Amino acid sequence: MKYILQDLKVxxxxxxxxxxxxxxxxxxxxxxFSILLINDIGFDSFTFKKLGAKIGSxxxxxxxxxxxxxxxxxxxxxxxxxxxxxxxxxTTNSISDAKEKLTKAIEIITRTTKEDSAFSHINEVxxxxxxxxxxxxxxxxxxxxxxxxxxxxxxxxxxxxxxxDMIIEVDNTYRYPTSxxxxxxxxxxxxxxxxxxxxxxxxxxxxxxxTTYFIDLVFNSLNHTTNG
Length: 228
Description:
Keywords: DNA-binding. By secondary structure, this protein is mostly helical.
């Protein structure tokens, strides 16, 4: 998979950006250092002026790529979900057993992120932390319905549908496959956040990972339906 991913380009809705940041060295630098800066100071404190100072470029040059920092966050989170989707597809493609395939998918969606050397300008570990802490800010807005119609969240929704289809493969009588699939993806972010910040509100720790929890949750839900 490592060698396949070296040629990977995550196709992000071109309405999210004004100029494709992958098309130039400056664009890649904007992406690279925005991840570093948002991780360092948080999205609320992040501005294009601060990013410009960080990369030694005029603030106006960043606006040639992104209309505002909200669109930049949409770009970063879309890239993350697309990167995760490719991992899921390539890793599970050759698995024929439905339960084994779903288990592997849950592992990919919920595990702690490791850096991928195929993308030198994107630190996936830090981007994962940003998604855990900031992803909800990309859709908890007044514009969410219009942005959804424009396809801004299509990559994330496609990933959820892939998991849903795997759940149905395991148990096509289960009545809530989409809800369960979205619970795994959203819940994984939440469990990682709780483990890092509100440890008394989760059973996940150094021994019990979110992956362990969600594999147990999913298959107990399906087993309950089957056995019931």
